[in-house]
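Sequence in, structure out.
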Amino acid sequence: RAEPDVADRAVAALESQNIEARHVWKPMHLQPVFADARAFVTGVSDDLFRTGVTLPSGPNLSDGDVERVTDALAEHLES
């Protein structure tokens, strides 16, 4: 199980190479607007929010862009 600082370090490593990355979106049950809403929580979304990283994606990414992101992430993970 990944610790939150692992995700923070990955985001920082990518940002140091001018690659935008961030933690995954905050779960709905943690959003202030839904504070009083009924929620069925198992902890999975909380763990993903704490440890997950969103990488650049979309139809405008070239093969070179994808390779740059994966190379940077692999370099970080190997260090």
